[in-house]
Amino acid sequence: MSIFTEDFSTDPWWWQGFRPPEATGELPARVGTLVIGAGYAGTACALRLAEAGEEVLVVEAGALGQGASTRSGGQVSGGVNVGKGASRKPVPGHRKAALLRDAAAGFTLFETLLERHQIRCGYHRTGRINGFWTPAHAAGWAARLPELNEHARSDARLLDREEAAADLGTRFYHGGVLINRAGHIQPAEFFGGLLAAAMRAGACFAGGTPVLRVQRLPGGYRVETPRGTVQAARVVFATNAYTGAAARGLAPELRRSLVPVTTHMIATEELPEALARTVLPANRGVSETRRVISHYRLSPDGRRLLFGGRASFFPLEERRTAALLHRAMVARFPQLAGVRISNAWGGRVAMTLDRLPHLGGGEGRFFVAGCQGSGVTMMTYLGHSLAEKILSGRSDPVNAYDDGLPPHHPLYDGTPWFMPVLGSWYQWQDRRERMPA
């Protein structure tokens, strides 16, 4: 029997609630701020600027929000992944505390935006569990809990294996950590609400408008697109993992600082009610403590499982990545072996060498980037924070993430040629660690 439904689609399942619009309006000749990239960061930046009376235009190469903002797993938290797995020297304690406090502020901003703009996006503040891949992972999390609870206000605690199994409906993990200040949303509907709020505030958006060239002029910038040229006092790069080959000549220093990684997701067909009750009975979001994680949660109505992860580090078409994710899903929930997949899709996340998000810029040229796949609240917060930086005109850091471009490596030019080898190495390490457990 096929694992795919008759109406199987490679569109994100989220698009049934909100489909990214084209919105190809007329381009103004001049604007105060031109934002490149209409995702969470670019839209949140435009919202704050427009609320302050700034003339702002957001341009997007494709449909508005068609990238990671409407393709993600839709889990929300504040600070859980800050600096996790950093590959360079450890973050000093005082700086780590500041990073966590600002991440917590990002979660507060997210909930404030939902209330202020009455954004309906299936928000469930039901917590998140990071399942322990091996028993040894409990010690590392136990050491992290004090700083997470003090600075990020995570309200987190350890779960033993029985507690985790009861919450998750699976005995796949060796316990876990429950982060109560977390939840999950319908990410496309959240983006749609954020976009509508920015438009009501007066921000202009133009989809189908790739940027061809950004030229510095006295007092501003000249931005060329196939649909016309715009003069802007300042430019914001909010392209994140989509700062690809097309941006080689636009923002080469930013491109060299980001490693785009494709992650994949599937949505099951609607589950029978009795079967649905056996999966994630506490309606938590779930992630894992291994290197190549899987993440999953129920749909807002509780009738489908949305399951994601890095199914492959080699280019594969959606049916093949879906089959890999289906196998991983059944390993965790054997009762879903006969359940079919209605949707499978992919999207890009941006990694940095120090595993930290960044914002910065000056002289009218700014950027936000690098949320390591945890961008729903963080990219929204960084975009909002960058707008505050622009409005204030301040040169000092606006928050702990305002420290300039992420670090780069002399052998990396923005093309992630090493990911298949590195990803396969991570997968092997995960299997090796799991076997004795």
TrEMBL record:
Alphabetical UniProt keywords: Oxidoreductase
Pfam family, one: DAO
Region named Disordered: 68-92
The keyword Secreted is assigned to this record: no
FAD dependent oxidoreductase domain location: 34-388
UniProt KW Oxidoreductase keyword: yes
The name this protein goes by in its record: FAD-binding oxidoreductase
